Amino acid sequence: MKKELKNYITSLLEKNERVDGRKLDEFRKPVKIELNISKNAEGSAKVTIGKTEVIVGVKIDVGEPFPDSPDRGVLITGAELLPMSSPNFESGPPDAQTTELARIVDRGIRESNAIDFKKLCIKNGEKVWLVLIDIYVVNDDGNLQDASSLAAIAALNDCKMPGYDGTKVDYKKRKDKLPLLKRPIECTVFKIGKYLFVDPSLTEYKNVDARLTIAYSNGNVNAMQKGGDSPFSLEEIEEALKIAKRKCDEISKLLK
Length: 256
Hints:
Elements: H1 2-13, E1 31-35, E2 43-49, E3 52-63, E4 74-81, H2 96-111, E5 121-123, E6 127-139, H3 144-158, E7 163-164, E8 169-170, E9 185-192, E10 195-198, H4 202-205, E11 210-217, E12 220-228, H5 234-252
Parallel strand pairs: 4-6
Antiparallel strand pairs: 1-2, 2-3, 3-6, 5-6, 7-8, 9-10, 9-11, 11-12
Helix pairs in contact: 2-3
């Protein structure tokens, strides 16, 4: 049955068509960003892509810097695939899919130098601001990578720093914006057979051979991460970069 379904999906891709009628380079609708989802987070956003829904909250705290970067703030990204979002997700410690999702989002932000971490240093070698990104998948209908990364950058863009008197963090005094230098957008290009496409539905996602997540900011590639067992040829990577650049430019217009 699975082979027959994959053959059917492939036969549509040959005609530049999808199961739901879209073109290969077309995202599902709506692609929507909602801000201020959580009053308790310093920044929060909900992203909807078709029926896929992801919420991201950003918390800011004070802690110690890493030994190799004593004058820089710290970024920690975590994800949770809530059981209510899919019958395939279970409660418990993060599995490989959860860990990879968090790493994809983290890499796009970190490698683009999106945050001015030096401005998050309170006292060199002793105290810095911690930026904690929490990803919650509310409904999984495919392409969690792009929905999560977009929600994360939207939440960071919405984030306001709490007050700090040198001893205690005052979360009631949110004033200054997080020092955000860039707003990287990630687009994942998926592959079935020899065909490249974006934003798979869950049905398509289950039949994907490989994927390549590409983070762009200011027109430049900042990060890439591959998934899946099949390889990408050099020509396919070049085409994937073009597709991702075009879609990232479109999606970036949604950020306010």
